[in-house]
Write a structure and sequence with these properties.
By secondary structure, this protein is α/β, with parallel strands linked by helices. The chain has seven helices and twelve strands. It has helices at residues 22-40, 71-87, 109-115, 118-121, 140-148, 174-188, 232-243; strands at residues 47-49, 96-103, 126-130, 153-158, 192-195, 202-203, 219-222, 227-230, 249-252, 270-277, 280-286, 291-297. β10 and β11 form a beta hairpin. The protein is globular. Its EC number is 3.2.1.45.
Amino acid sequence: MIQLRIENIQGGGALIGEVNGKYYRSYANYLIKFFEEYAKNGVPFWGMTLQNEPTSGALPFYKWQAMLFTASMQRDFVKVTLGPMLKSKNTTKDLKVMALDDNRISLPGWADTIFNDPEASKYVDGIGVHWYLDALMPASVLTTTHNRHPEKFILATEACAGAFFGHSPILGDWYRAEEYAVNIIEDLNNFVTGWTDWNICLNEQGGPNWVENFVDSPIIVNATSDQFYKQPMFYAMGHFRFVVSCMSRYTDKQLIKSTSSAGHLYESYNGLNAKHTKNTALLQLFDLDGISSSLFGS
């Protein structure tokens, strides 16, 4: 066994040694082995990210295990070591590789660092973004990133309700469904191609979670009674999945602005306008009291 990090580190830290040294090559082999073992059991993968929330690795007292990568470290790692190794294996040669996989506060600079290097860029297909610090950076940075690198996709790779306030599930809470709907529309209006919830399902406490990070989920499972509850967030996500097909094309930005009613977090109506099929357009409006969709055919 090769030890890749300093022993007993729980929080932040990086791999031992220089980027693309023997420990980085061992780590790349470890990642490839993961995909190969799943493939042996009939489980294929569409894509991967270079590292989950790499900036968290700079936090020495972070409560999860975290590994530091800066944008330049990711660039050099994928260019010299990981990218060529992935392409050399039948199991991993077609994987879609995403950089960042962290909050959009790091954009567009993170994307520029990687995609402005032609050798690194050829191994990376897109950018992954999380929603947790969206309040600190406007969604327009997503459009800026797209405009600078239009050949690369942007995927929302993680979001969950209750990460900061109101820890644990709140059954039947439509406010959290509103949060999802607004964020999905905002992302799609800024060239994000898809939106991913963090949790498939959680128990009634919002776990299990070994660091007691109890949050909410679209599906809550009551294991003692063998029941599960579909939360309002489930229906918010389901609505978009139902009316916006995977082949829909975004056509216009926010359509309507209006002052919201008191008691709502968001201060404007939000709209999504997409080309649904060859002769059909989709207009989807979120008016803080519900979501409505209309299809217009020619």
